[in-house]
Amino acid sequence: TMPKEPAVLRQNILDTTAAILACGIDPKKCFLFRQSLVPEHAELAWILGCLTNVPRLLRLPQWKMKRASQNSEGTVGLLTYPVLQAADILLYKSTHVPVGEDQVLHLELAQDIAQHFNKKYGEFFPVPKAILSEL
């Protein structure tokens, strides 16, 4: 949600990929891809954003904290980031999502969005459940 120098962003992508592989993720057993190359993430985020009301997003504690750290100015990207996270989860019809305590409210937003979408358009998205991590 913050502007980055293109070279730094490219290096971050490489560093993150290296860290994932170093953790033992086996690319022969799972898909490893760069999310920004999959336009459906942004497309679904747009659709879900049209179903999500602004007051719900304004109540999220992460918005309040980050906005405070940006001198009371928040960007649209910061406000709608939880909707993108919901799209990331729902796009793959995830049923269980590992999250830390700090992301539980964002997962609850994804659950609410899935339920709202399903009520409006018919059963399509599973409502994802949290797998809480102690780390």
From TrEMBL:
InterPro entries: aa-tRNA-synth_Ic (IPR002305), Rossmann-like_a/b/a_fold (IPR014729), Trp-tRNA-ligase (IPR002306), Trp-tRNA_synthetase (IPR050203). GO terms for molecular function: ATP binding; tryptophan-tRNA ligase activity. The keyword Ligase applies. Its EC number is 6.1.1.2. Keywords: Aminoacyl-tRNA synthetase, ATP-binding, Ligase, Nucleotide-binding, Protein biosynthesis. GO terms for biological process: mitochondrial tryptophanyl-tRNA aminoacylation. It is an enzyme of class 6 (ligase). Belongs to the class-I aminoacyl-tRNA synthetase family. This is tryptophan--tRNA ligase. It comes from Tachuris rubrigastra.
